[in-house]
C-alpha cells in the first residue's frame, strides 16, 4: 500500500463535473497544500474517458458517422479535465502529482487503478443525486465504496441550510 | 482495573458537553481541523480508527506548543435505545408481549454504559499512543441518524466509518438481533427480540448519502472479512 519512498498512494477520480473539481480542491487543501513539500501521500489523479461507441449508445443508420465526432469531443473533454487538474495543482503549489487518462467506464477504471497502484485511499466526488436518480444512472461513488480494494473517501459539497 | 479505565473513559466523554459551533463569519480552515470516527463493538470500526491514526496522524499530531493549531479527533459511539416493551411472534396463540421491569431496564442501561466506557477507553488508548488530541462522545438513538446529526452540529471536516466488507447478498440480508436477559434472582427469564441493523453495512451506506460532510469509508483487510 506504499510507494518505493514509503508513502501511501492516494488516487483521486476526476471528470468534467463541478463536484469532481470540488473534491480535488478539497483534497489538495486538506492533505497536500499545508504539508508541502513533504506530502503524506503519493498522488495519482485519474480521469476515465468514456468509449465513443458506448457514449453514442444507439445502433442504426448514421451511427458510424457520428462516432468520430463523439470521440473527438470526448478527447477534447479529457484534455480539458487534465488541464484543469494541472491548474488546480499548480494554484496550490502541489507538485509531483501524476495525471492519467484511461478509456472505459469510470467505475471499473478507478477500481483497476487502485489495484494497479496498490492505493491506500480512493477519493471521489458525489453528485448528491436522490435515490431514484442513483438507481437509474448508477453512482460511481456507491460502486467504488463497495468494490474498490481500499478505503474510499466521498467528498461532497456541504449543503448550506438557510 | 477495568472499572477504573471505564470510569476514566466516561469522564473524558463529552456526553453532556455541547458540540462547539463556528460562527458564520468564520472562514473555513484549509487543514482538517475536526475529524469524527464512529465506533461500535465491531473489529472493522476499530480498524478504521487505527487506519486514521496510521495515515492521518501528521494531520492530527499535537505538541504542547501547537496544541491550539493541531486537529482534533472526536470518537463517537452510539448506544441503541432500549425498548421497554417488546412483542414477537412466539408462544401460544401467536404474538407474545413482554414488558421490561425497572430493575431490568437499569441493569441493561448499566451494561450499555459499561460497554460504551470500555470501547471509548480502548479508543483513547489507541489515540494517546500517537499523541493525538481526542475527545469522546456517547449518543443514544439510531446509529446512522445520530452520527449524521452530530456531524452537522459539530461542523465536521471529515467523518470516518468502518465498512464490514460484506458482499451485496450479505449486506441486504435482514438479520434479527436477539437479546437474552436472564433474571436468576426471580428464577425466570425474558427473551427480548429487537431488530438490529436491518441492513448490514447500512450505517456506512446511509452516512455516505446523508452526512453533510465528506466521508471516509475504511475497508478492513481481506483476512478480517473472512
TrEMBL record, chain A:
The keyword Heme does not apply. This is Adenine nucleotide alpha hydrolases-like superfamily protein. Keywords: Hydrolase. InterPro entries: Rossmann-like_a/b/a_fold (IPR014729), Universal_stress_UspA (IPR006015), UspA (IPR006016). Pfam families: Usp. Residues 10-156 form the UspA domain. Signal peptide: none annotated. CDD domains: USP_At3g01520-like (cd23659). It comes from Arabidopsis thaliana. SUPFAM superfamilies: Adenine nucleotide alpha hydrolases-like (SSF52402). GO terms for cellular component: cytosol; Golgi apparatus; plant-type vacuole; plasma membrane. The keyword Hydrolase applies. GO terms for molecular function: hydrolase activity.
UniProtKB/TrEMBL annotation, chain B:
The keyword Transport does not apply. It comes from the Eukaryota. CDD domains: USP_At3g01520-like. InterPro entries: Rossmann-like_a/b/a_fold, Universal_stress_UspA, UspA. The keyword Membrane applies. Keywords: Hydrolase, Membrane, Transmembrane, Transmembrane helix. Residues 1-13 have a biased composition (Low complexity). One of its GO terms (molecular function) is hydrolase activity. Residues 1-28 are annotated as: Disordered. One of its GO terms (cellular component) is cytosol. Residues 33-172, 195-219 form the UspA domain. The chain crosses the membrane at residues 178-196. Signal peptide: none annotated. This is AT3G11930 protein. It comes from Arabidopsis thaliana (Mouse-ear cress).
Amino acid at each position: 500500500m506504499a510507494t518505493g519512498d514509503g508513502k501511501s498512494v492516494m488516487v483521486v477520480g476526476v471528470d468534467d463535473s463541478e463536484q469532481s473539481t470540488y473534491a480535488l480542491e478539497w483534497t489538495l487543501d486538506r492533505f497536500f497544500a499545508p504539508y508541502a513539500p513533504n506530502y503524506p501521500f503519493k498522488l495519482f489523479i485519474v480521469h476515465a474517458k468514456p468509449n465513443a461507441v458506448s457514449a453514442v449508445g444507439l445502433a442504426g443508420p448514421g451511427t458510424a458517422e457520428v462516432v468520430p465526432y463523439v470521440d473527438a469531443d470526448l478527447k477534447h473533454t479529457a484534455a480539458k479535465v487534465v488541464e484543469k487538474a494541472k491548474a488546480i495543482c499548480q494554484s496550490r503549489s502541489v507538485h509531483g502529482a501524476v495525471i492519467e487518462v484511461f478509456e472505459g467506464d469510470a467505475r471499473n477504471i478507478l477500481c483497476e487503478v487502485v489495484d494497479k497502484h496498490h492505493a491506500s485511499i480512493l477519493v471521489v466526488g458525489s453528485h448528491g443525486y436522490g435515490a431514484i436518480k442513483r438507481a437509474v444512472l448508477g453512482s460511481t461513488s456507491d460502486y467504488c465504496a463497495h468494490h474498490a480494494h481500499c478505503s474510499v473517501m466521498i467528498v461532497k459539497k456541504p449543503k448550506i441550510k438557510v | 482495573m477495568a472499572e477504573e479505565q471505564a470510569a476514566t473513559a466516561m469522564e473524558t466523554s463529552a456526553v453532556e458537553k455541547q458540540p462547539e459551533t463556528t460562527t458564520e463569519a468564520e472562514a473555513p480552515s484549509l487543514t482538517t481541523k475536526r475529524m469524527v470516527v464512529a465506533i461500535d463493538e465491531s473489529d472493522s470500526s476499530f480498524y478504521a480508527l487505527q487506519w486514521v491514526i496510521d495515515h492521518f496522524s501528521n494531520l492530527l499530531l499535537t505538541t504542547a506548543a501547537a496544541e491550539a493549531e493541531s486537529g482534533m479527533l472526536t470518537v463517537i459511539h452510539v448506544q441503541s435505545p432500549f425498548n421497554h416493551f417488546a412483542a414477537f411472534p412466539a408462544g401460544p396463540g401467536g404474538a407474545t408481549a413482554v414488558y421490561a421491569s425497572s430493575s431490568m431496564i437499569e441493569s441493561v442501561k448499566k451494561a450499555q454504559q459499561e460497554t460504551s466506557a470500555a470501547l471509548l477507553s480502548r479508543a483513547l488508548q489507541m489515540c494517546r499512543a500517537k499523541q493525538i488530541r481526542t475527545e469522546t462522545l456517547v449518543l443514544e438513538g439510531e446509529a446512522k441518524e445520530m452520527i449524521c446529526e452530530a456531524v452537522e452540529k459539530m461542523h465536521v471536516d471529515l467523518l470516518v466509518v468502518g465498512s464490514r466488507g460484506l458482499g451485496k447478498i450479505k449486506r441486504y440480508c435482514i438479520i434479527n438481533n436477539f437479546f437474552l436477559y436472564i433474571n436468576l434472582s426471580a428464577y425466570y427469564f425474558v427473551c427480548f427480540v429487537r431488530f438490529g441493523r436491518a441492513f448490514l453495512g447500512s450505517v456506512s451506506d446511509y452516512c455516505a448519502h446523508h452526512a453533510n460532510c465528506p466521508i471516509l469509508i475504511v475497508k478492513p483487510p481481506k483476512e478480517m472479512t473472512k
